[in-house]
Amino acid sequence: MPRQPTSHERMTGQPWDASYHDGPAPWDIDGPQPAVMRIAAEGGFTGLVLDAGCGSGENALHIAHHGLPVVGFDVAETALARARSKAAERGLQVEFVTADALRLDGLGRTFTTVLDCGLFHTFDRDERREYVTNLASVTEPGARVYVLCFSDQGPDTGPHPVSQDELRAAFNGGWDIVAIDAERVHTRFHGSHGAPAWLVTVDRTSHLAGT
Ligand SMILES: C[S@@+](CC[C@H](N)C(=O)[O-])C[C@H]1O[C@@H](n2cnc3c(N)ncnc32)[C@H](O)[C@@H]1O
């Protein structure tokens, strides 16, 4: 069954893939996000890593460069094609697959660490709950999720600012929010300091809501 357009696609009137058609997308900074580089340098990624909404793959490729097995998924075929050709050029082994974050059962695997860089904040409240349920279906208790999203603490906030309350509401039941740290996320349209962001560190606990 074809996927339904997300709230973001309904709002823009464009499928995600269109963002990758005319040159680099606004978030495509031709390198990993500094926050992701720091997590990797500190050994924060372990086991099989999932990059959710990987785009053209810079973060996934950076994690793979650290020697970890990585799967990146996205709905944008153009971005995935670019990610695969970068992996080939750099001699890095990353599996880039087409998948919908709101229907992850098809991945057929579980992951030790999940990175979400810029995907969570594109969803509306109901999609976020659905997404988090899907994340539970591809992780085991003890898995760690990092969410890097625009924050609502201005000035110069990004297009989908998220509050701490919204983060807590989404990861409610079966998850332990270990930290919500003020961060910066870099884009092509914010200055050299990037935009205000949250880096959310979440662990899956053994108890899941409804079980
Ligand atoms: C803001 S971009 C961030 C891309 C990448 N993580 C980065 O940092 O460059 C959001 C990405 O999520 C993808 N995306 C949006 N909705 C999705 C969904 N339902 N399932 C999978 N990917 C999705 C988009 O195609 C886009 O590549």
Automatic annotation (TrEMBL):
InterPro entries: Methyltransf_25 (IPR041698), SAM-dependent_MTases_sf (IPR029063), TPMT (IPR008854). This is Class I SAM-dependent methyltransferase. Keywords: Methyltransferase, S-adenosyl-L-methionine, Transferase. It comes from Kibdelosporangium philippinense. Residues 49-142 form the Methyltransferase domain. CDD domains: AdoMet_MTases. It comes from the Bacteria. Residues 1-25 are annotated as: Disordered. The lineage of its organism: Bacteria, Bacillati, Actinomycetota, Actinomycetes, Pseudonocardiales. Residues 1-11 have a biased composition (Basic and acidic residues). The keyword Transferase applies. Pfam families: Methyltransf_25. GO terms for molecular function: methyltransferase activity. GO terms for biological process: methylation.
